[in-house]
Structure formats: C-alpha cells, structure tokens
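Input record (one chain):
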Amino acid sequence: MPWSDSIYHGLATQLNRRFSHGLQSVVAYTFSHNIDNATATHFSTVLSPRRPQDFENLDAERSNSPLDRRHRLTVNWLWDMPYFSSSNRWAVKNLVGNWRVVGTYTAESGQWVTAQSGTDSNLNGDSAGDRTILNVGGNPTLGSAVTPLCIGGPCSMYSAADRPKYTVGYLATNPNAMYVQAGQGALATAGRNTIQMPGINNFDISVAKKFSFGEAKGLEFRADFVNAFNHPQYTAGFVNSVKLTSNTNTRIFVQPDNKAFQDWSNNFSSNSRSIQLAAKFFF
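The corresponding structure, as predicted from the sequence alone:
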C-alpha cells in the first residue's frame, strides 16, 4: 500500500589511523533511530507484518522500524607485522617475519519484532497483523495463552461453531506474562515491534604467512575465521550479510501461546564459527 512513511535520525562518527609501522585501523560508530509504520525486511510477514492491524488506524502502526539498529560499532584493522621483514637472512625473514593479521569487529543492536496472537482478534478477516494484549507489569520475556470464558458455564458446553457467540472474555493462563494472546473479539493493545532479538557481537579474523623467493615471487598461506570466537548470534540474517539464514514461515516464536515464544535459539542459526584455508602463489 502506498501510504506508509518513515523517518530516520542518525549520528555517524569515524576515527582513522593511517598506515604506519605496519598498522592501519578504522573505528566507526553510528547511533540512529529509524521509525516507520510498514517495512519489509527479514521474514517481514513473520517477524513484523507489513499489513496494519487496523486499516483505519495507521497511527497505531508507528513504531521502531524492523530496520532500526540503534547502535552499530565496527572496528577494522590491518597489522602487517614489520618484525624481521627486512632481514637479510632468508630463514629469519620468512620463518619468523612476514606475518599479517586482518580483522573486523562488529557490534550491532538486534532486530525489532512484533508479538502476534496468531488469530483474527479484531474480526476483520485478516489475521496477519493482529497483535497481543500488553500486561504492563508482566515479564517481557514471557507470553501467555488464554482460556475463553462463556455465558452460562464452561465453553466446552457449546459446539465449536457456536462457542464464539457465547464467549464474553478470556483468562490469561500465565498472569505474570507481559504478552497475552488476544482471542477473537478481544482488543489487542500491544504495539508493533516491541521485542528486540539478540544483536551481533562478531569477530572476523584473517591470519596470513608469506614466504618470499627473490624480489618478485612468493607463497602465501592464509586462514580466515568468521565468528572467530564462536559467539552464538541468533539473528534473522547472517552476521556479515543481509541475506536470510533460512526460509522459515512459522510464527511460533512470536506467538505468546507457544512454548517457543522468544526462543530464538530454536528458530535461527547461531552463526557458528567457520574457517577457510587458502594458499596463493604470486609472481
């Protein structure tokens, strides 16, 4: 739909160390806030539905954007170790010297997602955007299913077809939960994108060793470590790419009536460490 809008505020800073004594480094930090009322991003129809909960109240959709990354810090460095690299002794120069270390550290705030009831709460025929009831004093990590309450006694006394006509309210299964499922006909009060997924805390490191043969020829061996310290990072995309990690279409981890609610480790890859070995002959 063509009537959505967004606003972005940001402060970007950068500190550079020019190449000197074999060392070069760049430190960059961005503090920003992205606000919108409809965005397509990683699993947009799952984590943050694009269609509004109420088509006649777009103001209720205004929130943190799924694209919002409040903090982002990157540190890049290249250290071409100068030790023994100019030695006249081949063994000293090539066995002790000629090392290079390149690295990148990234720390980034996590993606915002929307808690969803998984039912057509407002009875408008569209279940995609229906959110939850917010229990302000509840635990923000917990969700709760509900038990319907019917006129005249237990709802089980009515057939499944008639039950909605006699339902007058819902009872939260877990009163300590912040996010409570909004049953059919209930008013969902939780906002859009109020839950934040884990962020990125990632080191990528490359270590190279060069052997020189004369002035123009040489052999280089290199080891590249992605997520070098193997930090578990359960994000909707890769830690160093905007691509998706999978094509899951289930909503169980954003529905408060499910045991997997906010259980990111059961739904996304940890982006575990990967290692690549390479050899290069140059002449």
